[in-house]
Amino acid sequence: MSNTKALPLLEPVAGEEAALCCPPLTERPFTADEAETAARMFKALGDPVRLRLFSAVASHEGGEACVCDISDVGVSQPTVSHHLKKLKDAGLLSSERRGTWVYYRVEPSVLATMGRLLTIPSSGA
What we know:
By secondary structure, the protein is of the alpha+beta class. The protein contains 5 helices and 3 strands, in the order ααβααββα.
């Protein structure tokens, strides 16, 4: 049994930007819970193979990718499965089995959340 938690990303309210797990780094210091949530996300992406897999899924046509299309990252298939599981456990990917293949997609709001988290606000002139 895994002791990891998915990122608590919230679905956007109609007409609003996606709600975030954490505020932008420049807005205010993180609370302990916010820091743990962001650290899980960055830890999952801190491995080069995981980052390549996440990028392959995020950039794949249609926003989802069959494991058969993204497994050429220089490691064995069991290792690819391990890394995809870590990305799922961190709440960055979701998956769906279709026949013998598993399709992965980036969870809604993940890319927006990561982008906003790292955004430097523009100076209002």
